Amino acid sequence: MFSDILIQTKAISRHIEMLDALFKHATEGIVVVKKSGEIVMINPKAKELFGYTDQGLIGKQIETLIPQRFAKNHVRYRDEYLQYPKARSMGHSLDLFAKRSDGSEFPVEVSLSPFTTSDGEFVVSFIIDITERKNQEDKIKEANLEIQNLNAELEARVEQRTRELAKAVKKIEESQQEVIRALKKEKELNTMKSQFVNIASHEFRTPLATILSSASLIGRYATTEEQDKRQKHVDRIKSAVTNLTEILNDFLSIGKLEEGRIQCVPVLVELPYFCTNLIEQAQGLCKEGQKIHFSYSGTSQVWLDKQLLRNILFNLLSNAIKYSENSKPVFLNVLAQEEMISIEICDQGIGIPIADQVHVFDRFYRATNAGTVQGTGLGLNIVSSYVELMGGSISLSSEVGKGTKFYVNLPNMILETQNPE
């Protein structure tokens, strides 16, 4: 029996030696405290961590190893822990700091394990200095922050380059549009040139041929009895020359409009008298039995560009006469108000097909039913441009075989002349 006790004693001694070796050679700091918080044991690694001698901590409160700013709250945390003690780790989600003997601080991780002996209740603390880990974490944080800054800078640069690229693309698109517009304009000009050559050659050829034939025939009628025949050819020559003059005037007007050399200069106009004189001039163009009927209402004095107004009305009246048959009346109706002058030119002529009505103000355009009636297709385009210069508007309504109405609205420019900018 004594031998059994001896064997047990030796086994216990070996266990104690092993535990003592583990305690002394552990790579973690180990501190054992009573329930009251008094330190009763500390291993060499803990002494090394905290910078104390063998007996420098025994008997002192655990708060000695805690920075002063945390010590007061630690007493409360310790008491709360000891009410329900259990093994747990600390510092994984919190930043814990310990205090060395010289007052310096270092970050730690702490694990707690309660145990009870015949001497009472104790808590063993396992302490790891995580300074190097924190340094590495800080370096990682700094690296991440630098990466974030670099990413932000890169994103800003990409955004800036994207904006610059968008601007460059926009400029290229605008340049392309300008080129397209220029090519379109050039195509339009080439088309207009072709139209001009075709129309000019045709419109000039007919009156010139008339002048040439009539001039040749006049010489054959030498006697007094043949005066009527001579006069007939003289009248044909005069008509042809008038027609040529009108064609040339149209071409000259187009050139001046293109160059911006025609300006709107309003003057005081006695409008009823102006219209009456104009009708007398246009009456000479009327066919047999044709008559221009004139009605006027409103104020008599208005402010308009006299020359532009004459060209507008004369062109519309001559068209009404030209595209109407003998004895068909033409109407000129004017309503002059304080701010606006409304003009209607009506005829009972051939009318304009619906498909052609949207194009009648286009340059060189002639309605499909114009037939052999002479014209350059410039008149209404010039009229539209003149109306626009005067700040007005022009529109029409027409029915084939029944006639056409043109509506011209022009602002009374009295306010502009009295209050110039």
UniProtKB/TrEMBL annotation:
Transmembrane segments: none annotated. It comes from the Bacteria. GO terms for molecular function: phosphorelay sensor kinase activity. Gene3D superfamilies: 1.10.287.130, Histidine kinase-like ATPase, C-terminal domain, PAS domain. Keywords: Coiled coil, Kinase, Phosphoprotein, Transferase, Two-component regulatory system. It comes from Dyadobacter psychrophilus. Residues 15-68 form the PAS domain. It holds the Pfam family PAS_9. This is histidine kinase.
